[in-house]
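Team,

Forwarding the record for the chain on the shared tracking sheet. I've put the sequence and predicted structure together so nobody has to dig through attachments.
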Amino acid sequence: MEALEVVRSMKESLRKHRTIGAKHEVEFTFAAPKAKKVCIAGSFNDWNMTSMLMKKSADRTWKIKLKLSPGRHEYKFVVDGMWVDDFPGLETAPNPFGTCNCIITVHGSTTLLA
């Protein structure tokens, strides 16, 4: 029950810090050629592990295009039901579970992977 309360608190905190504005298309890609299912979850979908299913492309990477508001968004990939980070070297933020979330920052018409 305690972990559930932490997740609720984290979601509420992230909702308060979102920037309202025009949404911009952002493409996420993730290399997991042997995966059966890859989703993305983050502050932009209330950390829902299954609502944003990525599609496997011909080059065996997984892709999804999302419309995101300007601002800072935290996210992780869910590969066959397991939380996975994005590429090493990107900006991350610690989460209440002892791991880190990846960060993407959307600036007007330009998107930056932090």
